[in-house]
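explain this:

___
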Amino acid sequence: MTILALEIGPTRFAAVQASDEVGEDQIRRISVPPRGAWNACREMLLDAATGAEISSVGIAAAGPIDMVAGVVAPAGISEWRSGFAIVEEVRKLFPSATVRLALDGVCLALAERNFGGIADTPDALSVMVADRIVAGVSVGGFTVVGRTGNAGHIGHMLVPGADDRCHCGGRGCLEAVASSGATLRWARGQGWQGESVEDLLDAAVAGDEIATAAVRRSGTAIGQIIASVAPLLDFDLVVVGGPLARPGSPLWKPLGAAVATHARLGFLTGLRVIPSPLGDISLLAGAGVLGVTEE
């Protein structure tokens, strides 16, 4: 049985044959082109399949999605905003394969439960802070999917006092405030001249005032949203990963302070917020798990 894992993000596609040991050289990644997104994705998938008999394809997709219809409509891919029938198109490529679609946050939670930080915790929140805010919810040991497949969209919860415009059309969304791209944009708007998230974190560690303020702003916002979600779902563990939340990142101090300030109910006393042990392949890993999930 050969399982193909596909990640659909707003800026990149990635695919790999799922196995216990995946080498970096086996992963195919491409930037989403301004036109011909499916043509590019199809060629990447065929390259990743390398002629193997594909029995199952798991798809981790940026939302919104319609899991029942097999349709994705990520805001970052202009051609697909009105909906693209990804499951149908993948089935055309691999007619004998089972094709399963899930929100990337659901796949993140699957990866954390199978390989990462929540394996022994029934009630948990998995978060990835990257070019968007990805999150998955686990309750009672089960990953919460939701009616349409879009459960876990904490990136579009509102940050107190924020008015940043979001690509979804709203204002004040966590993703518009605290994603890696949003953090960089805010810092540059204040006069910081670095190039990357790594540069920003390094500058904050070195004491740069603007970089420190940018990271503090994002960490505080993420902590506020975690503190808002925690009493709703009564979980006791949050695992946070992604480039901005790497272990040792200066993001952790303001994030932890915000959680401590706002998560004050007695039943939240034991709430833990820890770094994810998974790296850049977490969504692909979750898509691989999805590919072997029983119907």
Notes: The mean pLDDT is 93. The first strand starts at residue 2 and ends at 8. The longest helix spans residues 209-233. The two ends are 16 Å apart (CA to CA).
